[in-house]
Amino acid sequence: MKPAIGREDADENDFGAALADFRHCLFNSLGVMMALAELARRDPAKYQRLAEVVLEKSEVLRDRMTALSSLFESLKAK
After folding, report:
1. Among residues 4, 10, 23, 71, which is most buried (max CB within 10 A)?
2. What's the whole-number mean pLDDT along residues 46-57?
3. pTM: predicted TM-score of the whole model, two decimal places
4. How confident is the model at residue 14 (pLDDT cuts 50, 70, 90)?
């Protein structure tokens, strides 16, 4: 569930959902990166693809963290 960020009526449940979504994304991304790192170690030709995936996942994590921070700040301001 992705809560609407920046809503006037955001509450702790929205923050909890955003936090859960971020944690899921973070753990998923770390798992993918670890698996790809192991694959790249076994087959050095895979390093280019590993770098691309890490960059993609990093952008997703940055976006999710920004959204979570915005929601947290809106709740803090209440």
Report:
1. 71
2. 79
3. 0.60
4. confident
